[in-house]
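::Amino acid chain::
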Amino acid sequence: MRASGKFLDRYVPGREVNPVGQYFNLGELPLELARKPSVLPRLSSGTPSAAGRRSTSSALSRTPVVFGSGKRFGCNMISAITNRGRLYFFVFEEKFTWRVFLRFLRRLVRQVRRKVFLILDGHSAHKAKDIQPWLSRNRGRLRLFFLPGYSPELNPDELLNQDVKSNAVGRRPPVDAEDLMSNVRGYVRSTQRMPHVVRSFFDGEHVRYAR
Protein backbone atom coordinates (compact mmCIF):
# COMPACT_ATOMS: atom_id res chain seq x y z
CA MET A 1 0.00 0.00 0.00
CA ARG A 2 1.27 3.47 -0.85
CA ALA A 3 2.21 5.78 2.00
CA SER A 4 -0.65 8.07 1.01
CA GLY A 5 -3.12 5.21 1.43
CA LYS A 6 -1.74 4.38 4.86
CA PHE A 7 -1.99 8.03 5.84
CA LEU A 8 -5.67 8.19 4.90
CA ASP A 9 -6.42 4.89 6.64
CA ARG A 10 -4.59 5.61 9.86
CA TYR A 11 -4.83 9.36 10.34
CA VAL A 12 -7.71 11.77 9.86
CA PRO A 13 -7.11 15.24 11.37
CA GLY A 14 -9.72 16.11 13.97
CA ARG A 15 -10.08 12.59 15.31
CA GLU A 16 -6.67 12.40 16.88
CA VAL A 17 -6.56 15.82 18.52
CA ASN A 18 -8.92 18.29 20.10
CA PRO A 19 -10.72 19.88 17.12
CA VAL A 20 -10.97 23.28 18.82
CA GLY A 21 -8.75 24.92 16.26
CA GLN A 22 -8.31 25.43 12.57
CA TYR A 23 -6.58 23.08 10.14
CA PHE A 24 -4.34 24.62 7.52
CA ASN A 25 -2.71 22.89 4.58
CA LEU A 26 0.63 24.39 3.68
CA GLY A 27 2.26 24.65 0.26
CA GLU A 28 5.27 26.28 -1.36
CA LEU A 29 5.26 27.53 -4.91
CA PRO A 30 8.51 28.25 -6.80
CA LEU A 31 8.08 30.53 -9.80
CA GLU A 32 10.88 31.00 -12.27
CA LEU A 33 10.85 32.48 -15.74
CA ALA A 34 13.45 32.39 -18.46
CA ARG A 35 13.26 35.50 -20.65
CA LYS A 36 15.09 34.97 -23.96
CA PRO A 37 14.68 36.35 -27.50
CA SER A 38 13.38 32.99 -28.68
CA VAL A 39 10.18 31.24 -27.65
CA LEU A 40 10.72 29.19 -24.48
CA PRO A 41 8.56 26.88 -22.38
CA ARG A 42 7.44 28.50 -19.17
CA LEU A 43 5.86 27.11 -16.00
CA SER A 44 3.85 23.93 -16.42
CA SER A 45 0.14 24.32 -15.85
CA GLY A 46 -0.48 21.33 -13.58
CA THR A 47 -3.76 19.48 -13.27
CA PRO A 48 -7.36 20.73 -13.40
CA SER A 49 -8.60 22.60 -10.35
CA ALA A 50 -12.15 22.63 -9.05
CA ALA A 51 -11.83 26.32 -8.39
CA GLY A 52 -14.94 27.84 -9.85
CA ARG A 53 -14.16 30.58 -12.33
CA ARG A 54 -10.46 29.79 -12.11
CA SER A 55 -10.30 26.28 -13.54
CA THR A 56 -6.89 25.43 -15.00
CA SER A 57 -8.15 22.62 -17.21
CA SER A 58 -7.95 24.70 -20.39
CA ALA A 59 -4.18 25.02 -19.99
CA LEU A 60 -3.45 21.29 -19.94
CA SER A 61 -3.20 20.77 -23.66
CA ARG A 62 -0.56 23.40 -24.40
CA THR A 63 2.70 24.76 -23.03
CA PRO A 64 2.71 28.52 -22.34
CA VAL A 65 5.61 30.44 -23.90
CA VAL A 66 7.25 33.78 -23.25
CA PHE A 67 9.46 36.20 -25.16
CA GLY A 68 12.08 38.34 -23.52
CA SER A 69 15.57 39.74 -23.19
CA GLY A 70 17.50 36.79 -21.75
CA LYS A 71 17.19 37.83 -18.09
CA ARG A 72 16.19 35.14 -15.59
CA PHE A 73 14.02 35.98 -12.61
CA GLY A 74 11.60 34.35 -10.25
CA CYS A 75 9.99 34.35 -6.84
CA ASN A 76 8.50 31.98 -4.29
CA MET A 77 5.25 31.82 -2.40
CA ILE A 78 4.32 29.99 0.77
CA SER A 79 0.62 29.66 1.56
CA ALA A 80 -1.79 28.06 3.98
CA ILE A 81 -5.47 27.37 3.33
CA THR A 82 -8.35 26.08 5.42
CA ASN A 83 -11.48 24.15 4.54
CA ARG A 84 -13.41 27.17 5.83
CA GLY A 85 -12.15 29.19 2.89
CA ARG A 86 -9.38 31.15 4.53
CA LEU A 87 -6.05 31.78 2.83
CA TYR A 88 -2.78 33.19 4.14
CA PHE A 89 0.30 33.69 1.98
CA PHE A 90 3.74 35.24 1.75
CA VAL A 91 5.58 36.05 -1.51
CA PHE A 92 9.37 36.39 -1.37
CA GLU A 93 12.44 36.41 -3.62
CA GLU A 94 15.01 34.55 -1.52
CA LYS A 95 15.47 30.81 -1.27
CA PHE A 96 12.97 28.99 0.93
CA THR A 97 14.74 28.22 4.21
CA TRP A 98 13.81 27.58 7.82
CA ARG A 99 14.14 31.32 8.47
CA VAL A 100 11.51 32.10 5.84
CA PHE A 101 9.31 29.33 7.20
CA LEU A 102 9.63 30.65 10.74
CA ARG A 103 8.77 34.16 9.55
CA PHE A 104 5.61 32.78 7.98
CA LEU A 105 4.66 30.81 11.11
CA ARG A 106 5.02 33.91 13.26
CA ARG A 107 2.74 35.84 10.93
CA LEU A 108 0.24 33.00 10.89
CA VAL A 109 -0.15 32.73 14.66
CA ARG A 110 -0.49 36.52 14.89
CA GLN A 111 -3.29 36.56 12.33
CA VAL A 112 -5.22 33.48 13.49
CA ARG A 113 -6.82 33.68 16.91
CA ARG A 114 -7.54 30.00 17.37
CA LYS A 115 -5.02 27.18 17.61
CA VAL A 116 -3.53 26.24 14.25
CA PHE A 117 -3.11 22.62 13.15
CA LEU A 118 -0.74 22.86 10.19
CA ILE A 119 -0.56 19.97 7.71
CA LEU A 120 2.59 20.05 5.60
CA ASP A 121 5.12 17.95 3.71
CA GLY A 122 8.54 16.82 4.85
CA HIS A 123 10.63 19.66 3.42
CA SER A 124 13.86 20.08 5.40
CA ALA A 125 12.90 23.64 6.34
CA HIS A 126 9.73 22.34 7.99
CA LYS A 127 11.72 20.00 10.23
CA ALA A 128 14.79 22.16 10.86
CA LYS A 129 16.16 21.94 14.38
CA ASP A 130 16.51 25.73 14.45
CA ILE A 131 12.73 26.21 14.60
CA GLN A 132 12.11 23.62 17.31
CA PRO A 133 12.63 26.01 20.28
CA TRP A 134 10.05 28.41 18.82
CA LEU A 135 7.62 25.54 18.17
CA SER A 136 8.02 24.35 21.76
CA ARG A 137 7.29 27.82 23.11
CA ASN A 138 4.20 28.09 20.93
CA ARG A 139 2.78 24.57 21.15
CA GLY A 140 -0.38 26.03 22.65
CA ARG A 141 -0.91 28.01 19.45
CA LEU A 142 0.42 25.71 16.74
CA ARG A 143 0.83 22.02 16.00
CA LEU A 144 2.45 20.47 12.93
CA PHE A 145 1.32 17.31 11.09
CA PHE A 146 3.47 15.83 8.33
CA LEU A 147 2.19 14.18 5.19
CA PRO A 148 3.91 11.02 3.91
CA GLY A 149 6.69 11.53 1.37
CA TYR A 150 5.94 11.93 -2.33
CA SER A 151 2.21 12.44 -1.78
CA PRO A 152 1.36 15.89 -3.17
CA GLU A 153 -2.14 14.66 -3.99
CA LEU A 154 -2.90 14.75 -0.26
CA ASN A 155 -2.29 18.48 -0.04
CA PRO A 156 -5.14 20.71 -1.30
CA ASP A 157 -2.74 23.65 -1.35
CA GLU A 158 -1.24 22.06 -4.48
CA LEU A 159 -4.41 23.07 -6.32
CA LEU A 160 -3.91 26.66 -5.22
CA ASN A 161 -0.34 26.46 -6.52
CA GLN A 162 -1.52 25.20 -9.89
CA ASP A 163 -4.16 27.91 -10.04
CA VAL A 164 -1.59 30.64 -9.35
CA LYS A 165 0.84 29.29 -11.94
CA SER A 166 -1.84 29.13 -14.60
CA ASN A 167 -3.66 32.38 -13.92
CA ALA A 168 -1.40 34.80 -12.05
CA VAL A 169 1.57 34.02 -14.29
CA GLY A 170 0.27 32.23 -17.36
CA ARG A 171 -2.17 34.84 -18.62
CA ARG A 172 0.10 37.90 -18.59
CA PRO A 173 3.86 37.34 -18.86
CA PRO A 174 5.65 39.61 -16.35
CA VAL A 175 8.53 41.79 -17.49
CA ASP A 176 10.70 41.43 -14.37
CA ALA A 177 10.74 39.96 -10.85
CA GLU A 178 8.89 42.93 -9.35
CA ASP A 179 6.14 42.60 -11.93
CA LEU A 180 5.95 38.84 -11.31
CA MET A 181 5.58 39.30 -7.55
CA SER A 182 2.97 41.99 -8.07
CA ASN A 183 0.97 39.68 -10.34
CA VAL A 184 1.10 36.86 -7.81
CA ARG A 185 0.18 39.03 -4.83
CA GLY A 186 -2.72 40.65 -6.67
CA TYR A 187 -4.13 37.35 -7.85
CA VAL A 188 -3.85 35.59 -4.50
CA ARG A 189 -5.38 38.58 -2.70
CA SER A 190 -8.36 38.34 -5.03
CA THR A 191 -8.62 34.64 -4.17
CA GLN A 192 -8.63 35.54 -0.48
CA ARG A 193 -11.83 37.48 -1.11
CA MET A 194 -13.54 34.40 -2.55
CA PRO A 195 -13.83 31.77 0.23
CA HIS A 196 -15.87 29.48 -2.01
CA VAL A 197 -12.89 29.19 -4.36
CA VAL A 198 -10.56 28.28 -1.49
CA ARG A 199 -13.05 25.73 -0.13
CA SER A 200 -13.26 24.09 -3.55
CA PHE A 201 -9.64 23.04 -3.28
CA PHE A 202 -10.80 20.51 -0.68
CA ASP A 203 -13.28 18.79 -3.00
CA GLY A 204 -10.83 16.29 -4.49
CA GLU A 205 -11.03 12.63 -3.51
CA HIS A 206 -7.59 12.51 -1.88
CA VAL A 207 -7.99 15.70 0.16
CA ARG A 208 -11.43 15.18 1.62
CA TYR A 209 -9.79 14.00 4.84
CA ALA A 210 -9.12 17.68 5.55
CA ARG A 211 -12.70 18.86 5.05
Remarks:
- The domain at 3-210 is CATH 3.30.420.10 (Nucleotidyltransferase; domain 5).
